[in-house]
Structure formats: structure tokens, C-alpha cells
């Protein structure tokens, strides 16, 4: 599986794939198109037919069961309308005009081949990682077709429940926290220049540091449970 260069992503540099640059968008770029559109782009660029057809496009579950065993790329590129949605999403993450070439069943930028059935998973993984989604678990979940609808309903209900919680943090809350955190140079005036990857990486670091600062006095006064350890913030992040 292709993995991004963590240093390049941290510095805001694009990922190079066969001479084509794939970007983690900045907060301003996400704001310009709207968060809802941005999240749609993420789903469409995943090439996950279940997420795209059922979750996003509300495809009929019974019709989906007839094609669920097909290759994700072949199923999605067989429909011109879905291809157009995907090309728009890929154009956003490459900052180039992506086109679909029916003759080769591939996505191209100019005369350069970009995505085909052999590398679409790699491209999807790069975009996923550059946008702060490091978990493969949901992508690997393939529930049996006769339970797909029930599972989907449960997942959507759980998601809605989570988002209704008062402590749910959306993107605005995260960048607000980063802008208010001390000693990181991030302010309301420059946070829009950060990429999505940088935002999530720095948010994780702030969380680690905050946990350390809060527990340090407890540890220093000997009130920390003997089996508990003082969390270390000078450590490797997940990003």
C-alpha cells in the first residue's frame, strides 16, 4: 500500500504520484467550496462503491445487492454521471482538470494517465491520509448483503447521535482550539492557510501536550495513581 511522506505532508507539500501532485486542501479552500461539498469530495475520491452509492447517492439497497460483488472501480466508472462526480472531486484534490477517458477506462490530466483499475486504491489511500483519515477499519468492513441496510441504519443513527452531543468538535471548533492554544504561532489570521493534514496533526499534538500539562501538578504532588503514568507529549503522532 502506498503511504504518504509524513514530513512532506506536515510541511504542506503535495504528494507526487506518477508526476501528478495530490494536495491536502487548506482550510480556506475547504471554506470556499463548503464543508458539505468537501466531505462529498472525500467520499467520491474513496472509490468505495458502498459509501458512494448507498451513503452518498442513496442508491436502492436491492439494486445495490445485484452489483455489490463487482469491482468498485468498474462499477463506479460504468455510470457516466458518477464518473463526472468523481472527476470533479479528483480535480479538487489535484488542482488540475481531471478528465475520464472511456477508451482506456482511466482518469487523465492532459495526456498523462492518472487513475485506472490498477492504482485507484493507492490514490484513494493517499487522499484519505492527506485528509486526516488514518483508519482503514471502516473501509474494510464488508457486511453481508442481506444485513447491509440494517448495518447502514445503525451506523447512520450512531453518527447522528455522536454529532448531537454537546462536546462534538467539528472543523470550526478544532481550528478555534488551535488558534487559542499558546505557543504554536497559529492564530485566527493564519489558521486558514493550514492544510487539513496540518490541522489534525497539530490538534493531536495539542491534545497530548494539554493532557501532560493538566496531569503534571497531580503527578508532582504524588496524587497520581501508582499504576498510572504521566502522559508523554514529546512522542510520535499518528499523523
Task: Explain the overall architecture.
- The chain has 239 residues and is mostly helical.
- It folds into two domains: 6-164, no CATH class; 171-220.
- It has twelve helices and five strands.
- It has helices at residues 6-10, 27-33, 35-44, 49-56, 61-67, 72-77, 80-94, 120-130, 137-140, 148-164, 171-180, 196-220, and strands at residues 15-17, 20-22, 98-101, 106-109, 112-115.
- The strands form two sheets. Strands 3-4-5 form a three-stranded antiparallel β-sheet. Strands 1-2 form a two-stranded antiparallel ribbon.
- Helix 11 (171-180) packs across helix 12.
- The relative contact order is 0.14.
- Mean pLDDT is 84; it is low at 136-156.
Short description:
This protein has 239 residues and is mostly helical. It has helices spanning 6-10, 27-33, 35-44, 49-56, 61-67, 72-77, 80-94, 120-130, 137-140, 148-164, 171-180, 196-220; strands at residues 15-17, 20-22, 98-101, 106-109, 112-115.
